[in-house]
Amino acid sequence: MRPSGRDLSDLRTISIETGVTKHAEGSCLIKMGDTHVLCTATIEDRAPSFLKGSGLGWVTAEYGMLPRATNTRNRREAASGKQGGRTVEIQRLIGRALRAGVDRSALGERQIVVDCDVLQADGGTRCASITGGWVALRLACNKLMKSGACLSDPLPDHVAAISCGIYAGQPVADLDYAEDSEAGTDGNFIMTGRGKIIEVQMSAEGATFSREQMNKLMDLAEAGVAQLVEAQKAAIA
Fold first, then answer.
1. Are 141 and 155 in contact (CB under 8 A)?
2. The domain 14-236: what is its CATH number?
3. 31-52, pLDDT tens digit by residue?
4. Which of 112, 139, 160, 192 has the most CB within a 10 Å radius?
5. pTM listed for this prediction
6. Residue 70, marked binder
7. CA 61 to chain centre
8. Does 124 appear as a known binding residue?
9. Is 184 annotated as a binding residue?
10. Is 38 helix (H, G, I), strand (E, B) or coil?
C-alpha cells in the first residue's frame, strides 16, 4: 500500500490554473497533490548574443523554492549570494526539456524565460515545473502568434514530465515526498505529447534495479505523461 493510498499507477490530483499573474505573457499555477509551483513565461525581444544573426530563438528557465516550501525553513539563496548546486541542475533540466519541444526557427530571434517558483513541495517539483512551465510557454507563444510576431507555431508538441520509482519493491508513478525519500530507485521521465522521449534520469538510491523494472517504469511514465498532457490541453482550451 502506498502512503497516500493510491494505486501503483495513480497520479496525484492535478490542477492547472492559468492567468494567475497580471504582467507575465504566460502564467499558471500547477498543483500535483501537495506540490504547488507558480510558472511564468516572459518574452524578451532579443535572443542571447551567441545567437545573433542566426534567426533562432531561445528558451531558458530559472527555478527557485520559497523558504517555507518544505517542512523546515530553507535560507533564501539570494541571502547566501549564490545558487545551490541542486537549483542550478534543476533549472538547466527545465530549460533543456522545454527547448526540446520548441521550433526555434519559428520563434525567431527572441528569448522566452520561464520562471518556476515552488510555493509548496511534496516531491516531484522539477517534473511539475516542466509540465506547468510548458503551459506558461504555450500561453506566451499564443500571444506572439496573435500579434503576428510569429507566423508559425513555435510549439509543435506538448512537453510534460513525471517521476516514477521503485517503492517497497513495487514500481509506482508520481512519487510524493514520503515515497521519494524511501524509494530504492528514483527516475524522472520527460516526454512529448506524441510519446517521444526527451530525457530520462534514473538512479539506484538504495537498491539496484533490473531491466524489467526499468521497462515497467517507462510504461508507467508513458501513461502518466499522457494524463498530464490531457490536463495541459484542458488548461489552455
1. yes
2. 3.30.230.70
3. 999 999 999 999 999 999 999 9
4. 160
5. 0.96
6. no
7. 10
8. yes
9. no
10. strand
